[in-house]
Write a structure and sequence with these properties.
about 25% strand, 6 helices, about 190 residues, alpha+beta, Chalcone isomerase, 6-stranded antiparallel β-sheet, about 40% helix, 2 domains
Length: about 190
């Protein structure tokens, strides 16, 4: 076999190996372990534990992994809980806010003045995110919600109606993503 032919085969093998490695790296499974909740959340609600997890996709693109932490063995919308979103891609803050407002509107919050107020609150709560970063929303029963980005509190919204409307995006039986809801609540019936 001639030297140029051997070099060509070696180059082809190297290219195929690089392609295979690229495919393996691009198709990583969802992490088995959830990032931890910030210690301040667990100090306030030491009973919180992970219940369910799922992945949000849009036209096949992985957007984020969601994990629900609850007190007790089941999801109870009237109890403390935390929703942890770990993003698979960079998303600007304005898109996070717009999507949240749109989903709350779709679920029945038709008061545009109230939605405008909530938009301002979410603009304080949500920074732009990069791939691998997390936002945690904490539901404080009857009191409102609190948000954390990368372990740092970004906002506290003292409005129980806001908290119900916001977390309904994922946890209400009317959500646009019933499969994700089922995974988060561990398959429990509505």
């Amino acid at each position: 076999m001639s030297v140029p032919r051997m070099a060509w085969r070696a180059a082809l093998r190297g290219a195929l190996c690089a392609l295979a490695l690229g495919i393996v790296l691009a198709v990583q499974p969802v992490r088995a372990n959830a990032p931890p909740l910030p210690p301040e959340i667990l100090q306030r609600y030491p009973e919180l534990r992970p219940l369910g997890a799922g992945e949000m996709r849009w036209f096949g693109l992985r957007l984020y992994e969601a994990r629900l932490w609850v007190s007790g063995d089941r999801f109870d919308p009237e109890a403390p809980f935390a929703l942890l979103l770990t993003y698979h891609r960079a998303i600007p803050a304005d898109r996070l806010v717009d999507s949240s407002i749109s989903e709350m509107r779709q679920l029945g919050t038709g008061d545009e003045a109230l939605l405008a107020h909530w938009r301002a609150e979410l603009e304080r709560a949500f920074p732009s995110v990069s791939s691998g970063e997390s936002i945690v929303g904490v539901h404080h029963p009857g009191a409102g919600a609190e948000f954390w980005h990368q372990g740092r509190r970004t906002a506290s919204i003292a409005d129980a109606r806001f908290a119900r409307a916001f977390f309904a995006i994922w946890l209400d039986v009317r959500t646009r993503e019933p499969g994700l809801r089922a995974q988060l609540v561990g398959g429990q019936a509505p």
